[in-house]
């Protein structure tokens, strides 16, 4: 029986998960995850197979009745429409490779379609319907390779049954049979649309998550350096075109190595996460905090000149100084911050970053826990 299926075959690994500022590591799926996804594919096809087989049985039964077929033909039709989908589903679910097993069942579906075309004496409307759907569903499920295999199966099964039946040829389609093709065309098309829409929504959600991961530091849950630099480059270009101000900060956690050595790397991560959260809470939605690398953060302030940026930087410095870490009451955290407003001399992002970095160096050289301007 022909039916249509939408396939989302799991690959060797999932979408990339950002591992740090400069690289992305793939999340490799476990064997259990891969099998679960294979079974999702099997389950989706099973539902469509049951629907398609039941609806296709209507025009076949009509033609068989018109040709005066005996009860064995109806028994085979009932088995194909009701029993076969359950057998195929059980075999696929028990297989070590459910998707490959399902592909074999898809080939058998095409063979069944070819056999019923011959049994109907090539009745025009059902034949056109079955061949079209047997072609479309194989392309959707497994591409051209599966289509070639299934087409060969359909043709061979058709020729075998057609020759055994004495090459019957009655292409005329009665009004009743034509009407009974309608439920398949309508109901199946609606079901297919629902499946396609659901999968499309799932893909859109996955794409948004992929996009978020590609620009986010997974540990700090703030944008990573590549995304920060891309946005900062656009902001610098906007300044060069329109003169609208923008400021950039580089923020360094003072004596972070000493914090790690004394309190452990776990506590060091807590400190960095606390600073990341502080940056997010201290700026507007249009601004962009990011992890720039190691214990260093970046902050892009949109439509902000140097005096206003210095006010923001000083507020962040004071808030960090007041942070309390309940697990380590003796731990204090201070920041050195370098601030640079975009200027006409900043022809590239690298030049703008160098200005902020030079200001950060001066803040550290002056004793840390302070703000310095370029």
UniProtKB/TrEMBL annotation:
SMART domains: GGDEF (SM00267)
The EC number(s) this enzyme carries: 2.7.7.65
GGDEF domain mapped to chain residues: 244-374
Any one GO MF annotation of this record: diguanylate cyclase activity
Enzyme class per UniProt: transferase
Residues that span the membrane, as ranges: 47-64, 113-134, 146-165, 177-195
Region listing for Disordered, in residue ranges: 1-22
PROSITE patterns named among the record's database cross-references: GGDEF
Stated name of the protein: diguanylate cyclase
Organism whose genome encodes this protein: Luteimonas kalidii
């Amino acid at each position: 029986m022909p039916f249509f299926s939408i396939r989302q075959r799991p690959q060797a690994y999932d979408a990339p998960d950002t591992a740090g500022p400069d690289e992305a590591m793939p999340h490799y799926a476990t064997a259990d995850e891969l099998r679960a996804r294979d079974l999702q594919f099997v389950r989706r096809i099973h539902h469509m197979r049951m629907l398609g087989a039941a609806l296709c049985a209507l025009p076949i039964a009509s033609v068989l009745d018109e040709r005066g077929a005996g009860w064995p033909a109806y028994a085979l039709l009932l088995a194909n429409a009701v029993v076969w989908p359950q057998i195929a589903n059980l075999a696929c679910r028990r297989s070590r490779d459910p998707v490959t097993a399902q592909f074999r069942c898809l080939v058998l579906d095409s063979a069944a379609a070819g056999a019923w075309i011959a049994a109907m004496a090539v009745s025009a409307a059902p034949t056109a319907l079955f061949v079209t759907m047997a072609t479309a569903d194989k392309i959707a499920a497994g591409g051209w390779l599966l289509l070639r295999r299934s087409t060969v199966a359909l043709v061979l099964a058709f020729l075998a049954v057609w020759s055994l039946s004495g090459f019957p040829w009655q292409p005329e389609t009665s009004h009743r049979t034509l009407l009974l093709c309608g439920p398949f065309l309508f109901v199946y098309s609606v079901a297919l649309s629902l499946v396609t829409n659901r999968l499309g929504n799932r893909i859109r959600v996955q794409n948004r998550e992929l996009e978020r991961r590609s620009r986010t530091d997974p540990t700090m849950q703030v944008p990573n350096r590549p995304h920060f630099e891309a946005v900062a480059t656009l902001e610098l270009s906007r300044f060069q075109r329109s003169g609208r101000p923008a400021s950039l900060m580089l923020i360094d956690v003072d004596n972070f190595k000493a914090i790690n050595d004394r309190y452990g790397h776990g506590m060091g991560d807590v400190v960095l996460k606390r600073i990341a959260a502080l940056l997010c809470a201290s700026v507007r939605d249009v601004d962009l905090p990011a992890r720039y690398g190691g214990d260093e953060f970046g902050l892009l302030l949109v439509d902000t000149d140097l005096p206003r940026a210095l006010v923001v930087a000083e507020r962040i410095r004071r808030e960090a100084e007041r942070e309390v870490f309940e697990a380590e009451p003796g731990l204090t955290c201070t920041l050195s911050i370098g601030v640079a407003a975009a200027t006409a001399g900043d022809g590239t992002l690298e030049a703008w970053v160098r200005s902020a970095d030079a200001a950060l160096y001066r803040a550290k050289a002056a004793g840390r826990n302070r703000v310095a301007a370029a």
